[in-house]
Amino acid sequence: MFKKIISFAAIIAMSMSLALSAHAADFDPAHYKSDKDQSEWTIGVVYKDATAAWGHRVVEGIEQYGEESGINLIVRGPASADAAAQKAVLDDLIAQGVDAICVIPLDPGAIESSLESAMEQGIVVVTHEGGSQVNTLFDIEACTADAFGSALMDELAAKIGESGKYGISVGYVTTASHMEYAQVAAAHQAEAYPDMVLINDGAVPSMESEESVNTAYEHAKELLKANPDMAGFIGIASTDAPGIAQAADELGIADQLSIVGVGTPNEYAPFLKDGSIDCVLAWDPGMTGYAMCKLATMILAGEDIGNGDGLDIGVDGYNSMILQEGANRCLVGSAQITFTVDNVDNYNF
User: Fold this and answer.
1) What's the CA angle centered on 240, arms 269 and 138, to 5 degrees?
2) I want to staple 73 with a disulfide (CB 3.0 to 4.6 A). Which of 66, 77, 287, 318 is the partner?
3) How far apart are alpha carbons 205 and 118 in whole angstroms?
4) DSSP state of 134
């Protein structure tokens, strides 16, 4: 009798395992072709935060794609940069039965279960700034983390003569791309610029701005008071460098502190022109939002995506995507731009 119970339990366990396997997310893009007419498609797009200039530009690019393609887009985001609030927005769109989800995660881990559920329902999932995201058909990045993080450090090193103390700020430690850039920058410094020293015993990041200029200002002021001889600062969230610059100005050390930031040229032009920020690196976030939606459309249409390597999305900077080795379905473009006082007026976004 005991053996029969064991056998029966084993059968139940096997059945449950098969059932789970049958409903597991399928990562083959070819299996997500829509049987609907394109006029019936709806793509839900979830951004991080549209209160900053970077977020505004993301939404502009997404809306531009909607206007040009004629595809119905539902564009939403949390009222503030909060991972739980973003998940709620995402879950609502999935419950509506959209055909595709495009999301720029605040915290990739916080939305894994939601995206897994979406894919199990046959919903196309495409992400951006989610290099660690597991449940996505593809994550699109404008450039490699190695290239971007190293470029940030090279710019700062050049500004401070490759010597002195510096700090690194990110929006959230849970934002995968921010942490990748920060870690690459610090590692590149350790190898290439031995006379530079990362404050706080080399901890990465030096501070977290919570995607807020005010928070960046407050935390930077504390760090600059504790390290009055700091020579430089890298701000990776688009809100960071302005807050750091404000803190340096109030403390009277703006002339000694070089700041390299990430952001849009229109927002940063005044800071570059008055010298409070030395250099800005970025890509056009609007075109990344556009490319994300375009890729979701290509998958719904059943275009031959394959593994994505070499894919041309038809957007400048994303014409020959590279499947990043060692990453989870991460497609990388070549859209990086460096803005300085000499060229910032050549761009309008």
Assistant:
1) 95
2) 66
3) 33
4) S
Q: Which amino acid is at 30?
A: A
Query: Which two structure tokens, joined as six digits, stand for 153?
Result: 């450090």
Residue 72 DSSP SS3: strand
Sequence-ordered alpha helix ranges (H) in 197-253: 213-226, 240-250
Give the Cα separation of 199 and 222 in Å (integer).
13
Residue bearing tokens 């007419």: 37
User: What pLDDT, in 10s, does the model give residues 122-174?
Assistant: 999 999 998 889 999 999 999 999 999 999 999 999 999 999 999 999 999 99
**Residue 30, CB half-sphere, CA atoms under 13 Å: how many?**
4
Give the residue from 51, 49, 103, 54 showing the smallest Cα distance to 74. 103
Model's pTM, two decimal places?
Answer: 0.83
Alpha-carbon torsion, ordered 245, 250, 253, 257, to 10 deg: -10
